[in-house]
Write a structure and sequence with these properties.
Blueprint lengths: L1 H17 L1 H56 L4 H14 L3 H37 L6 H7 L1 H5 L3 H10 L3 H24 L4 H31 L15 H21 L3 H8 L2 H37 L3 H37 L6 H18 L14 H25 L1 H36 L5
Helix pairs in contact: 2-4, 2-5, 2-8, 2-9, 2-12, 2-13, 3-4, 3-7, 3-12, 4-5, 4-7, 7-9, 8-9, 10-15, 11-12, 12-13, 12-14, 12-16, 13-14, 14-16, 15-16
């Protein structure tokens, strides 16, 4: 029986690896997986030293300060990486390189403007953020200081998208590891010298600055390789006929990103405002540990999206289905054993950060796992609808999920703190994954049916 199962599993694996599309996805994912696995280990080390140096409340303050600046920036973000991958891919497939260069140029310019405005808002509202979320007005200078990282990340989304499209995933991997090494060295220095909150914030800020400048510099070099030294002269007017589509795509992804920001990436700010930095600290550690499951799968999102966008552009629907099915199988092969490992060893892992995080962080972790397993296996649930021409649908689903989560936060968090926040996060993951997976396959069937009715070939 066991031998039969092994043979069957080996056969499935061989069939998966024999497909050139999946081999390319796995190769590119391998770069990012290796980098992000190393980065995850280094990040865990950063978190352990930070927690042991600053305690539960201090760890919560680090999360609140860094999340405040990041979220102000995301409010003005149009998720340019997805726009660049989609439209540079489309124009490249059509043999229009100047249009592709114009997309990247436009995207980067808009992102630069957004970064400058975001930093202005961070400085303006640093005092309010310190009082509202950290309950300590004296921390306002640290809120403004960390905001400098936003300026250095002036075109990082557009640049990441360009590197993804032109198959330069290894450069993203190198820079990811480099940033993590630099950050842990700086945090280690602060730990050994018994530094404080300021030194930890500076360490994270410097790491972000190096990442932003590095990724943008490499993308400019790639743009020159692909389109020549004068690529930046490509006139924006070339995109006039697609202006409405571009605006719709960008606005939809911005709204989607804003909803994600409110419902998933602002949890520590919610906890700080409604309860205290202490509860934010419990939650921060639980979420950092659950990222052990999320981080290895995250590279699949961008690598699968690149291939799916290309297959959709060329109307190869069989390949689209194959990529989604195979990607979920690969993700499940990691996600399920890893989740079981955290159930068994989660208490011990949390204990590395400090005994004071138990049992609250462990209970929060167990609750988060339920939703994380679902959203991790179907990691492509939102992005595939973008090249299918439905960038607005994930936004609508996220809007409903946002309303439900905010209701849950109001009802549960005041009395349950970090545990209540974990319940709302897990429920939101489950809801959005189920609805978006159903819609993705419905759209694929609809488009296939329209092609067949028109006498086309799938």
């Amino acid at each position: 029986m066991l031998r039969s199962l092994i043979r069957r599993g080996t056969g499935v694996l061989q069939r998966l690896l024999s497909h050139p599309l999946l081999r390319r996805v796995i190769r590119n994912t391998g770069y990012l997986f290796s980098a992000q696995t190393i980065a995850a280990g280094l990040s865990m080390g950063q978190g352990i030293m930070t927690a042991r140096l600053l305690g539960v409340e201090g760890a919560g303050l680090v999360g609140i300060i860094t999340q405040f600046s990041s979220n102000v920036n995301r409010l003005l973000s149009f998720r340019m990486s997805e726009l660049v991958v989609s439209y540079v891919g489309e124009y490249t497939a059509e043999g229009r390189p100047r249009h592709a260069a114009a997309i990247y140029k436009t995207s980067a310019l808009l992102e630069i403007i957004a970064s400058v405005v975001a930093y202005g808002l961070i400085v303006t509202f640093a005092g309010l953020g310190a009082r509202l979320f950290a309950h300590d007005a004296s921390l306002a200078p640290l809120f403004a200081l960390y905001g400098l990282a936003i300026l250095a990340n002036f075109a990082v989304e557009s640049s990441t998208g360009l590197l993804q499209f032109f198959d330069k995933f290894k450069w993203i991997a190198y820079l990811t590891v480099g940033q993590s090494i630099l950050t842990i060295v700086l945090i280690g220095s602060a730990f050994l010298s018994e530094g404080g909150l300021r030194e930890i914030i500076i360490a994270y800020m410097v790491g972000k600055i190096v990442w932003g400048i590095g990724i943008t510099g490499v993308s400019m070099w790639v743009a020159r390789q692909q389109w020549g030294a004068g690529w930046w002269r490509a006139p924006i007017a070339l995109l006039r006929d697609r202006r409405r589509d571009l605006v719709r795509f960008a606005v939809s992804t911005n709204i989607s990103g804003t909803l994600t920001l409110v419902t998933r990436d602002s949890d520590e700010l919610w906890l700080g405002a409604i309860t205290s930095p202490l509860q934010a600290g419990y939650y921060k550690i639980a979420k950092a540990i659950v990222n052990i499951i999320l981080i290895p799968v995250n590279p699949l999102i961008s690598t699968t999206y690149r291939e799916v966008a290309n297959e959709v552009a060329n109307r190869r629907w069989v390949n689209v289905r194959y990529l989604l099915r195979s990607g979920s199988l690969i993700s499940a092969a990691w996600t399920l054993p890893a989740a079981l490992g955290l159930v068994i060893f989660g208490r011990w892992v949390i204990g590395l950060y400090g005994a004071e995080f138990l049992p609250t962080s462990y209970i929060s972790l167990m609750i988060m796992l339920v939703g994380v397993v679902a959203v991790n296996i179907f990691y492509w649930n939102r992005s595939v609808l973008l090249p299918l021409g439905r960038p607005d649908y994930p936004t609508k689903v996220q809007a409903v999920a946002a309303v439900l989560k905010v209701i849950g936060i109001v009802l549960l968090v005041p009395g349950m703190g970090a545990i209540g926040m974990s319940i709302t996060l897990s429920a939101m993951f489950l809801f959005s994954a189920v609805v978006l997976v159903w819609k993705t396959y419905s759209e694929i069937r609809r488009v296939e049916g329209a092609v067949e009715a028109a006498g086309g070939q799938a």
